[in-house]
Amino acid sequence: MPDFAKIQEQRRSIYNLGKNVQQNPDELFSIIKGAVRETPSAFNSQSVQAVVLTGQAHEKLWEIALTELKKVAASEEAFTATKTKVNHSFAAGFGTVLYFTDTNIVEGLKKQAPAYADNFDDWAEEAIGISLYAVWLTLSNLGLGASLQHYNPLIDQAVKETFNLPDSWVLRGQMPFGSIEAPAQDKTYQDDMVRFMHFN
Ligand SMILES: Cc1cc2nc3c(=O)[nH]c(=O)nc-3n(C[C@H](O)[C@H](O)[C@H](O)COP(=O)(O)O)c2cc1C
Question: How confident is the model at residue 109 (pLDDT cuts 50, 70, 90)?
């Protein structure tokens, strides 16, 4: 059983992804489903919906992102740089996990428990964070790399139409994943003295 702290340390944002993955798409779908299914959520509301894109669906997502990014690009040069990043860092991967919040569930909770109504939007975001971290760790533990991207809301409409998703689902993040073709760069840490306290 690998040490959990080691699994945490091993997980990084990986921007050089490839398609050299041992698992097949169905296996990965099953593993990702398992990771999200076991996450906690406020009132066990399970407001996080995950869509796993592999193969042509994954390629299509990043085509959508490029189409939408082109519409808002400041210049031709800026778009060329963006295109290189999207193709190299995200489309080059094996798949992408899309994370959504089902707003029907969140709005239902507000009505069901009005005393907590002001909290439910925050709690839905926390559930997104917990779910994506669970998947990120799970992928990392399989030796796969991933990063977290936010091309929402720019791509929301096209994504919803292309994959025929419910209107109540709001896109909160995109996680391209795949083989690790280059390691993450070093990262810096805040001083523990500044960040943590312990009273006993
Ligand atoms: C809520 C959240 C939003 C993030 N958004 C992005 C993003 O839009 N694009 C990106 O490349 N990385 C994004 N990241 C990744 C962080 O930049 C990264 O986790 C951080 O720099 C630490 O690096 P590490 O993931 O390698 O540990 C996000 C991370 C979190 C938790």
Answer: very high
